[in-house]
Amino acid sequence: MKRVIDLPYYSFTVYSAAKTGICVKCPICGGEGMVRVDGKAYFKCFDCGSVKEKSLSHYRTSVHAHCKNCGKYFRREVEAYGNCGAAHVTCPECGVVMSGKIERVPIQNGAYFSAEIHNACEPFFGCELRYSGSFDGKSVWALNREHLDYLIEYLSANLREKRGIVKKTQSDHLPKFMKIAKNREGVVKVLIQMREKR
Predict the structure, then answer these.
(1) I need a labelling partner for 138 at 20 to 30 A (CA). Which of 39, 99, 162, 188 fits?
(2) Which residues, at least 6 apart from 5, have a Cβ–Cβ distance to it below 8 Å?
(3) What's 137's DSSP letter?
(4) What is the pLDDT of residues 184-196, one digit of tens each?
(5) C-alpha distance from residue 113 to each of 3, 106, 121, 135 (Å)
(6) Could you tell me if 80 and 89 are in contact, meaning their C-beta atoms sit under 8 angstroms apart?
(7) What is the pTM assigned to this prediction?
(8) Rounded distance between C-alpha atoms, residue 178 and residue 169, angstroms
(9) Of 127, 124, 133, which Cα lies nearest the Cα of 31?
């Protein structure tokens, strides 16, 4: 029996993946590319050498947290300067003050960059994700190799466990069709094909 313990809720978000690299297809040659964000957004193709850079000078900063007292999930906008990685926030439900990790969402020309993946494309340059496919007419994708490996491991397990008090984990981001028992085997086949042809 294959058993897996799920990862924390924010293990694979667009912005956490962008810090280490989102795997994409080069819009020029179709080769292997990478998008990273570090104050600015950067694209580089490892095949043709194409590079792009985009200024992301402003951020919306907020803390996403689960209250350690009442267990409620909440998001609070905060003022953050420099490289501050955490802030103290008050739970709107029970009033407990606690520390939470600051999430920075880049703003360009007065508009927030979407933190969502649309049509299997990343939100900074609009490049198609390298690991993308479909199952039963629905989009299946992974942000990078680590995310792809997580999806395969989680969906192919016979026993999937959540740990912690709050029990909000990375699998809560997955669309329902991927987690339905009758679809899991087919989705895993699509994911394995993505991994093998790269």
Answers:
(1) 162
(2) 161, 162, 163
(3) T
(4) 999 999 999 999 9
(5) 37, 6, 13, 28
(6) no
(7) 0.72
(8) 15
(9) 127
